[in-house]
Amino acid sequence: MYLSKALILGAAFLSGALANEEPTCQPTELMLYDFVVVGGGTAGAAAAAELARNLPDTTVLLLDQGKDFSDKPIVMNNDEFVNAAESPYCEHKFSTEVALAGNFGADRNIYTCVSKILGGASSLNYGGWYRVPEFDLDDWVEATGDDAWSYDNLLPYFRRLEAVDRADGSTPNPDRGYDGLIPVRHDNISVVHYTTGMIPAVERYLGVPVGDQDSNNRYQDAIGSLQESRVAGGCWYDEDGNQLGCAANLRNGSSYNAFIRDPQRQGELPNLHILEGAKVVQLYDFMPDNTDGPMTIEYVYKSYRYYVQAGREVLLSAGSWANPKIALLSGIGNKDDLAEVGIESKIDLPGVGRGLKDHGVLWMTAMLNNIQLTNFSDPNLGFDPSTFSGVNNPLPGLLAGRNTINAFFKSNETLEFPDMEFMTGLSPTGPGRTALMIIRLYQNKDTSGKAGGFLKLRSDDPSEEMDTSRNWYADEESIAPMLASLKTVLEMVQTGMAFSAPMILEPNGFTTDFTDDEALKAYIRSSVVSEMHLQCSMKMGTESDPMAVVDSELKVIGSNGRLRVADTSAFPTEVRAHPMAMAMVTGMRAATLITESYQASGDGNSTSTVGDGVDGAVTEDSDSEGTKDDEAGATNAASGARQSGSECAFAVAATAAATTCAFAAIAG
């Protein structure tokens, strides 16, 4: 089994701000690892586990600001995601849209949850499982000049990931996986009573055929059920394999659960160390002059700053929000922006934090025809089919889940590929009330080329929030797809084919004039929210692209080639799909690239060294006051940090005298 947090952290301690105890000398098991993965989210957990498995004779450290909450129902249960905004599992972020873009109306901010949980968004979201379509990956090949990112070349990763349950009774599709790591639920929409009117309505108004009922195919050309990374029921376990509890809808599509914590796979990763609650703030020693020396990672743990080193590579997988911040604080980014906040530019890459993409979504509600609730079961465990009644009999199948119809469609018939997504889901109402259908309208692609936000530092203080903007709907061209799609959906609802007119928007009803485009645009600007599908903030590309941050092998351009980025931030173009599956594939692909590089080097020796600070014990010759300068240490020129003779780690660069422990108190 991978080294648990109990072993890595050793004796627990309170920070100096909370108690008069000294911090542990070093909270990680080792001082020097072969590989350090920054961020244990959807991509990072996959990458770290794959690296540890591929290279069992090396050491891998996974640093994440979150914790292991895999024994909590929220991680196992898609339906709990609605409460995540009030949960401790999120670092709550609000964009500064009004001040910077001015295109959302008064007092309009956009909320984003930056996860604080191992597995990242894959441990919190409702589990929508969609591959990136072939035409998007064609764009990736064009942007990177590397056909390794083509649909067909990535198929082995997707197949290995998926365990599609084929509850729809379909014939196995050679493009899909059926015995992989992630359970993918795919229901048969044709047997669900209340969809009988909705299917022809979607076909007629959105122009999407029923097809093979797999809207997750390579062309997105079918109406299907929402495909989710969960199974219908099951239990979860602690790290020793002991059963902790069970739920009606077990959610185990989290990358952390699938790649690291799955009880059936435990015992495979003795070389993977995980430090929870560690927030990385800065990187050092990544410049070309450091061809083979260790690179240094600075992180905050329990109100103290620490340093750890990677002898071979650092993989930045902290997400589309955090990656740019870490890079900018490290001197990687637009040199003029860095100069404004007093940070020395090390690599001038204007694309860091720029070109941010996200999927906007409108939520609406309509009444279903002739369907009422008979009672309502525990909302945290989903809907029981027996709680609904139709005209003649109970509704089967799909109502055990939250979501139903899913279709990708074109906002304009002149488009070659879909840019919008239509999704429905049942809304809790109460016994005897007419069942409500939530309608979600996603804009998955900015076809105007006008939208594209940014993340920008306000200062060199890591604790200060960034200035941000998505820059949605700044002009007529960029709002046109959502406007056209909204009008189509409103028309579809009014026909009565699947819904009881009129459209409502709880609690006060939908009062916007359907015929007034200006009123509808105002409604869009005031109501659209983030689906939290952030991407492209450190995008892949060629060196001829001035906004590219990493190359096709995910290496930071201008670095020593041993610093890579792998998650949604590295996406070269916005994807027309829910990005979770592609994030995992990107992490797996990064592990493949790093493994190939390591094996090609012909050096099979691990660079790792064991420190004396294991289990929180400060070594005898360390200076507990943090003031003694050990002359036996060697200077790390790139970071300015000094290594002490005690092997306890690296001194804090900013202090006048070097310490023998790798920590520094943070003011306040």
TrEMBL record:
Residue span(s) of domain Glucose-methanol-choline oxidoreductase C-terminal: 452-587
Residues annotated as signal peptide: 1-19
A molecular function GO annotation: oxidoreductase activity, acting on CH-OH group of donors
Segments of this protein annotated with the region Disordered: 600-640
Binding of FAD, residues: 280
Membrane-spanning ranges: none
Active site: 533, 578
Co-factor requirement: FAD
Occurrences of domain Glucose-methanol-choline oxidoreductase N-terminal (ranges): 33-360
Keywords: FAD, Flavoprotein, Signal
Pfam families: GMC_oxred_C, GMC_oxred_N
UniProt xrefs under InterPro entries: FAD/NAD-bd_sf (IPR036188), GMC_OxRdtase (IPR012132), GMC_OxRdtase_N (IPR000172), GMC_OxRtase_C (IPR007867)
Polar residues compositional bias, start-end: 600-610
SUPFAM superfamilies per UniProt: FAD-linked reductases, C-terminal domain, FAD/NAD(P)-binding domain
Family stated for the protein in its record: Belongs to the GMC oxidoreductase family.
PANTHER family: CHOLINE DEHYDROGENASE, MITOCHONDRIAL (PTHR11552:SF147), GLUCOSE-METHANOL-CHOLINE GMC OXIDOREDUCTASE (PTHR11552)
Name the UniProt record assigns to this protein: Choline dehydrogenase
Native species: Seminavis robusta
Lineage summary: Eukaryota, Sar, Stramenopiles, Ochrophyta, Bacillariophyta
